[in-house]
């Protein structure tokens, strides 16, 4: 009788495990179908690229910075901002954009324009903007007055000291 009881318990456990594994597999399959059918992931890697990475100009020059991204949609927008030398953020006015790019024109630069410029690509969802990806930034250095060195000559002169 003990042997029969052991066999019955063993069979019951095997059957319970099979049922549990079947239920788990069914649940996984249902979840996969549900997720793949109705839920879309956000666009992977917008590939936001800024150029140039760094730029030095003289006061009064104009500068154009470029931001390219790999997604084309009206629900995406581009926003530019500058981080100054203290790390403070200065949001810039909206700039025109084409299908996959935006440019920032800074005319008549001054040393106060120096800083790191970033473009951010945003996705608009029901009136709210969410940052999706940011460019690596462009470090702009605007130098003050223009002092140009036309030429330089290095001469070595020897001097002799006589003992008197």
Automatic annotation (TrEMBL):
Composition bias type Polar residues, residue spans: 97-115
Pfam families named in the record: ig (PF00047)
Keyword Nucleus appears in the UniProt entry: no
A single GO BP: B cell receptor signaling pathway
Keywords: Immunoglobulin domain
CDD domains reported in the protein's UniProt record: IgV
GO CC terms, sorted: B cell receptor complex; external side of plasma membrane
Gene3D superfamilies associated with the record: Immunoglobulins (2.60.40.10)
Disordered: annotated segments: 88-115
Every Ig-like domain range: 43-133
Full protein name: Ig-like domain-containing protein
